[in-house]
Amino acid sequence: MSLPFNATAGNPSTFILWGIPGLEDLHIWLAIPFCCMYLVAVMGNCIILLVIKMERSLHEPMYLFLCMLSVTDLVLSSSTLPKMLSIFWFDAREIDFGACLTQMFFIHSFTAMESGFFVAMAYDRYVAICNPLRHATILTHSRIAKIGCTVVVRGMVFFSPHPFLVSRLPFCRTNIISHSYCEFMALVKLACVDVAVTKEYSLTVASLIGSFDIFFTSLSYALILQTVTRLPSKEASLKAFSTCGSHICVILVFYSTAVFTFLTHRFGHNVAPHIHILIANVYLLVPPMLNPVIYGVRTKRIRERVLQVLHCGIK
């Protein structure tokens, strides 16, 4: 496959996304569950946003954080899935250099935002269950806005250097990316200079953000579970356990697959490429699909409002 270079920059004008190496014959079939997950993610998150916007009684901390998470999910899934499906179904593997850098920035920055909003929602649940009388005074609308802005700014600031770091690298080996999307580590491996410092920066940022978020999310739910076990009402305890359990399942899927991908980049050189890339797709596709179900459909007030809208629509 030819390597079209930009004469002034010395870089390829386009990259070729290979998809999932080793599973090329299955691309057309893999695209079916991927497409289904994307449709569920888009419809589910759009419904969540619409219902919360329409219902003023849902303008509370938990639901406002859920809106932020839904927007993040929509951006995260839409920045990867359409291109991935075009690769799998139409063999449209080519992506412009600038578009590749843009996709990379959105993937990494919004993944960090997703993680940050999980922390914010865990903190909200901690305050609501462990300190319910002060919930309204602690999580005011202005404080919620500040938390949301902090999460967004953190994701953008820490990952803004990534496109600039990649754009300055010379690519003289190949323009074929052995991945289904433009991922930072997959790109820097194509450079024909020593990229040890560049890799260390990205891995350090990811490890610091991930460690911070995992610690505080785990701490919040540990304190919640400690409080729940002391509730006098067995029914209230079971309800809280059910809610927290479903939230923890989504968080475990996100962090376990993200940590696997991180460790594979650093240590897992013997991991088969198709396994690595499939897992890397899971943490970008599965949480955006599950979040509307776990945080939305399982929430009674949202479920009732959705059913009410559907009932009126049928009439």
Structure description:
It is globular, with a radius of gyration of 21 Å. Helix 1 (27-54) packs antiparallel against helix 3 (81-90), helix 2 (61-78) packs antiparallel against helix 11 (273-297) and helix 10 runs antiparallel to helix 11 (273-297). Helices cover 73% and strands 3% of the residues. It has twelve helices and three strands; from the N terminus they run βαααβααααβααααα. The protein is an all-alpha fold. Residues 1-9 have low confidence and may be disordered. It has a single domain (14-310), classed as Rhopdopsin 7-helix transmembrane proteins (Up-down Bundle), CATH 1.20.1070.10.
Task: Using the 3D structure, state the CATH architecture.
Answer: Up-down Bundle
Any idea what the CATH superfamily is called?
A: Rhodopsin 7-helix transmembrane proteins
Number of strands: 3
Give the SSE string. Answer: EHHHEHHHHEHHHHH
Number of helices: 12
Function: Odorant receptor.
GO molecular function: G protein-coupled receptor activity; olfactory receptor activity
Membrane topology: Multi-pass membrane protein
Subcellular location: Membrane
